[in-house]
Amino acid sequence: MLSAGPESMLQNRTQTLSVTYDVIVVLGAAVWPGGQPSPTLQRRVMHAVDLMQRGYAAYLLVTGGMGQYPPTEAEVMQRLAVAHGLSSQCVLREEQATSTFESALLCYDILRQHGWSRVLVVTDRYHLPRALLAFRSCGIRAVGSATTGKPARLLRQRWHYYFREWLALPWYLVRAVPVLLRRRGQVVGGVTTARR
């Protein structure tokens, strides 16, 4: 099982992270017409770039497939990260996921291929509990780092985001439990076999 160590599962930008990580995983958000990053997408990438530039990881893994407008969320995120000073060689893309759960599943394979076990997940605060549930159900004991700022200017819109997450958590638990049970069945004599 991939492990991020004994640190708190939830960090925020105002705290000093006490460890470094192998990789920072940034979860995608909407791409706007013309391939422009939405404010949410930009906020997540800029938070991750800040963490990278402060030395908390050597690699960035951006995850997100094609939404309503091209290109993929991952491509836009990589472009934005490079434009703000990161080397393109340090930014990896996962471009197939269309949900948080798919991002966790597909990132697991990439993390395992590179031998990365110390993982920091970046997303918005309202989204972080569900994101960490998804990643942990896939065997990634990730720590979370929430972006600063508000997901929307209007209080009504912010409550909409939190309410949507509250509704989504039970569905994610339904999806996560079978994955966890399947993984437990794959551990024989202390050796973990292939995930699928």
Put the structure in a nutshell.
This protein is α/β, with parallel strands linked by helices. Helices cover 42% and strands 21% of the residues. The strands form 4 sheets. Strands 2-10-8-3-6-7 form a 6-stranded parallel sheet, with helices on both faces. Strands 1-9 form a two-stranded parallel ribbon. Strands 4-5 form a two-stranded antiparallel sheet.
Walk me through this protein's architecture.
This protein has 196 residues and is α/β, with parallel strands linked by helices. The chain has one domain: HUPs (Rossmann fold, 3-Layer(aba) Sandwich). It is built from 5 helices and 12 strands. It has helices at residues 39-53, 73-83, 100-114, 128-137, 155-186; strands spanning 2-3, 10-12, 21-27, 31-32, 36-37, 57-63, 91-94, 119-123, 140-141, 143-146, 187-188, 191-192. The strands form 4 sheets. A 6-stranded parallel beta sheet has the order 2-10-8-3-6-7, sandwiched between helices. It has a two-stranded parallel sheet with strand order 1-9. α1 (39-53) packs across α2 and α3 packs across α4 (128-137). The longest helix has 32 residues, at 155-186. It is globular and about 40 Å long.
Describe how the helices and strands are arranged.
Layout: E1 2-3, E2 10-12, E3 21-27, E4 31-32, E5 36-37, H1 39-53, E6 57-63, H2 73-83, E7 91-94, H3 100-114, E8 119-123, H4 128-137, E9 140-141, E10 143-146, H5 155-186, E11 187-188, E12 191-192
Parallel strand pairs: 1-9, 2-10, 3-6, 3-8, 6-7, 8-10
Antiparallel strand pairs: 4-5, 11-12
